[in-house]
Amino acid sequence: MTKGITRRWIVNTLGVILVIVVVLVIFLSLMLQSYYYNGIEQTLSGRADELVNVLVSNSNSEFETAARSYVEKFPDKNLMELMILDSKGKVIITSTGFPPDENMEMQDYTLAKAADNDYGFWTGTQSSGESVMAVTKIIKDSNGYMVGSVRYCVSMEAANRQIFVIITLMIVVGLLVIFFVVLSGTYFIRSIVNPIREMSATAKRIAQGDFDAKLDKMYDDEIGELSDSINYMAGELANSEKLKNDFISSVSHELRTPLTAIKGWAETMRMGDTPDFRTMEKGMTVIVNETERLTGIVEELLDFSRIQSGRMIVNMDKIDILAELDEAIYMLRERALTENKHLLYDEPAHVSPVLGDKNRLRQVFINIIDNALKYTPASGVIGIEVKDDDENIKITISDNGCGIPAEHLPHIKDKFYKANQTQRGSGIGLAVVDEIMNLHNGSLEIESTEGIGTTVTLTFPILHTNDEDK
After folding, report:
1. Helix, strand or coil for residue 357?
2. pLDDT profile of the chain (470 residues), mean per 10
3. Residues 465, 362: one domain?
4. Distance (Å) of CA 331 to CA 217, 291, 324, 335, 387
5. Within this chain, do residues 264 and 362 fall inside the same structural domain, yes or no?
6. For residue 221, how many other CB atoms are within 10 A of its CB?
7. Which among 433, 429, 437, 432 has a CA at the least distance from the CA of 354?
8. Per the domain annotation, does 206 fall within a domain?
9. Domain count, the chain
10. Which residues on adjacent β-strands are paired with residue 85?
11. Is 36 in the same domain as 87?
């Protein structure tokens, strides 16, 4: 409760609501008190105005006579006290019939004498401790001379009690509002904090390698979407872990096979008896071939590392793409003949130049043709076709091999992915090829039907004259 989302909610939301409720209660209390006090003040003022018309006279004696007559008949003796003061401020008569307290506060009388409108108002506490409101109206004769004063005084105890009761109710309502806000807010915060805590614990399990950890989707909202995302992440990490392990196993096997051959022939050639020339030549051929195979695997791994770190560089230049394709076909034609596979290529007379890295493009062609040979059975056919239009050069390499199952086809360019675990290879060749094609602003498209064959289409943008001038 002292940190995190809960603390921020208490400080921000609940704090703001508490301040709003307190300010609102204070404001309404002041408004309520002002409403009551102004109402009483206007009532007293109205009474004083009515009495002025009754007590207007041209002498003190007439004023006193009229005042006594009015006070004796005053109908609201139980509600307020009426006092008549002479021109010197001495109380002549009161509606209560009792002489006034000599220490009684009469600030309203002092204010009335100093006011232009002859009115004076005062709210305060008398010496007896009673809260009162008083209004004094100066009575003048026709010549403007003061002949006396009328003073109404009303107890504010009942009004204050009503105000206190209403303010108490407002405070209770405010506390209830805060209570329900805290109640609903606590439920809402728990509906967020508890799933987040569970997500945090699950994420830690996933970080420690437990990719089977799953979250239950409790809400169909953003929290639920986050749960789905974490579950999806765990599944993807599990797949990546499996692919990584398969990759390590595959690469280990790929490295072990040529190393075993090299070691075997090296030990054979190191035996005491000098091997004959034919055996020596065969052993050296195997060693050279397997060394080249190891070099290819290492280069492929280095290329993949460069891709992962964004450090793969291509040296772009105007090139004849047919020359690099011819070189790749020449390098693999002997292998095709050895494996009794037919490599068919009808070279076009001319194609437009492209902007590219000839070494990287040769690597692309060798990788694709090598895959076609790898998955094509004996007596199979690999066809290579080049088409040139106004914008692109398309090189299509097709085979009638085993094909790729439909469920594997969307992932065939993913890193570490191998649709066929029985064939040699690291599973990163097509990922490297795809990256090289992207660096050349080209594309790699693969179409395949299981049991029929695979077609790979490489598309390269043509180098136009204006591009060459840039």
Report:
1. coil
2. 65 83 91 89 82 66 79 81 84 79 78 88 83 87 81 88 92 90 81 82 86 80 84 85 74 78 81 70 84 80 75 86 92 90 88 90 91 90 90 93 87 69 63 89 92 93 68
3. yes
4. 56, 16, 11, 8, 22
5. no
6. 11
7. 437
8. no
9. 3
10. 91, 149
11. yes
- Residue 403 and residue 376 share a domain: yes
* Nearest by Cα to 213 from 225, 201, 221: 201
CB-CB contact of 382 with 373 (8 Å) = yes
Residue type, 142: S
Residue with tokens 């029929």: 452
289 & 321 share domain: no
63: which 2 tokens? 């004023």
**Is 88 strand, coil or helix?**
coil
Question: How many C-alpha atoms does 408 have within 13 Å on its Cβ side?
Answer: 16
Q: Tell me the CA distances in angstroms from 460 to 66, 251, 329, 432, one per residue in order.
A: 118, 31, 18, 16
Q: Give 301's contacts (C-beta < 8 A, 6+ positions apart).
A: 251, 426, 428
Task: Please list, in sequence order, all residues whose beta carbon lies within 8 angstroms of the beta carbon of residue 352, skipping any fewer than 6 positions away.
Answer: 388, 393, 462, 463
Cβ atoms < 10 Å from Cβ of 428: 23
Is residue 453 within 8 Å of residue 464, measured between CB atoms? no
- Is residue 125 within 8 A of residue 131, CB to CB? The reply is yes
The pTM of this model reads 0.51
346-364 exposure pattern, b = at least 16 Cβ within 10 A, e = fewer:
eeeeebbbbbbbbebbbbb
Q: How far apart are CA 52 and CA 139, in angstroms?
A: 7
Total residues found in the chain within this entry: 470
Domain boundary among 116, 135, 162: 162
**CA-closest candidate to residue 233, choices 219, 214, 247, 248:** 214
